[in-house]
Every structure is written in C-alpha cells, then in structure tokens.
Amino acid sequence: MKKIIITKANGQKAEFDPNKVISTCIRAGADQVLAQRIAKKVSLLVRYGMTTKEIYKIVLRLLTDNATPAIKHRYRLKESIMKLGPSGFSFENYVGQILKHYGYKIRSIESKIQGRCVIHEVDLVAESSDEKKWIVECKYHNFPGRYTGLKESLYTHARFLDLADKFDNEILVCNTKVSPEAITYATCIGQKILSWRFPPQMGLERMIEEKKLYPITILGPNKKELELFAKNNMMIAKDLIDIDIYEFAQRTKIPIKRLVMMQRLTNQITV
To answer: CATH number of the domain at 103-210, out of 3.30.1360.20, 1.20.810.10, 3.40.1350.10, 1.10.238.10?
Structure first.
C-alpha cells in the first residue's frame, strides 16, 4: 500500500497510520469492529498533505453517523480541554480537580509565595498522600500543535529551586504534548511531567478517562451556559449528576429540559 504523508498540527510531516485512528476510536468507547471500519473509511478518504485537523473532522463525522453521542463526545476530549480557557475556566482549577481525584489535597490555587530571592505566583500547591508538598506549574494552550518545551521545564525547576525550603517535589502539567528535550531534562533533574500522552501509560488524557473526569465543555454548552457553569465552579461534567436540577435551573435560568439533556449525556459519557 502506498504511503500517504500528512501534515501534523505543528507543521511536521508524518506517515498516515490507520492504527492511530483505531486506538483513538476504541479509547472513546467504540468497539474493535466499528473502530476498524472507521479507520478503513478514513484510509480511503485521506490524501497527501492532508492535515491531522482535517482527518480529525472526518473521524468525528463518521463517529457522529455510526456511533452513540457519548462516543463522539469522548473523542472530542482534547478539543474540549482547549475550550476551557476561552470559556472563562481556569486550567489550574481543572488540574486541581483532577489531582484531588487522585488523592492529592489542593492547598492553594494561584497563590503568591516568597522564595529565597523573589516572590513567585504559584499555580497550585498540592500535598500528596505521603504528606509531601508539590509545586505545580500549569501550562495551557488553546491551539493544537503547540509543544510545551524545555523553556517551561527550566522555568518550573528554577522556581522550585528558589522555593526549595517550602516544597519537596515539582510537577509541570500541560494539556498538549511535551518536547523530547523537556522530557530528557525533567528525567535528569527528577521533575515530574504530566502532559498529553506522557507519561506513556498514564498521561493527562488517561487520568481523565480512567476516572471519567471530562470537562464540562465536552457536553457542548453554549457561551452563556459556559459562563453560568464557570460562575458556579462546575468544571467536571460529572458535577451535573449530583445537582438539584430544579434549584439549579431556577438559579441560573438554564431551561430544565436543557439540563436534563446534559445530565443524560453525562451519564452516557461516564458509563
């Protein structure tokens, strides 16, 4: 079969791999048969030079036509996270919510802490189950193809060093992929990195998927609804399941019918 070269979000060229389509569809909840069928259709449609964004749209359309709404929405996880910042949500708050579900206590968010030399604005202060204090630096991008690189890793470590008497560990969290140079440096100095697809077995996306911590943006709320959710500090879609829907509708003026639909979709996504 002839190799087809596509263009990644960062401009780099790569060979189209249908197995990647299969794996992302399965992770979104599609079974093996459906995932392979979609990958086969995509392979017939993909053309030389096509961008990963165009391929993403093809897969999304095929999932919309052939899969449940829940699978389609789960497939949009990365896109949904990128909608957090412009929607008025803080990526730091979302990361804090994720870490809490993994046993961390969040001691502060966006706090100013005096270091040995200067005052630092620290995104998150977290405490692990072994009572170690972590300085958490969050890097958010709302455009695909943006790597978090060596500069961010160096910056995080420099901040950690100036605050070394107050923290035991450091972690850099980002919603995009991290560069090989940053990984090499972080491994050398003992810095933990949590990003898209890294660490390979438990990257940010897997942590979200494992405990169903999908952002509220995955439900496709409109701009006004997002503003109301942000005002009520509802960042995780699962938060909708536990609310008093009638009281929330009365308070926010979001129609009950609309909230019921979102609750139903949340139940499907988080099965």
So the answer is: 3.40.1350.10
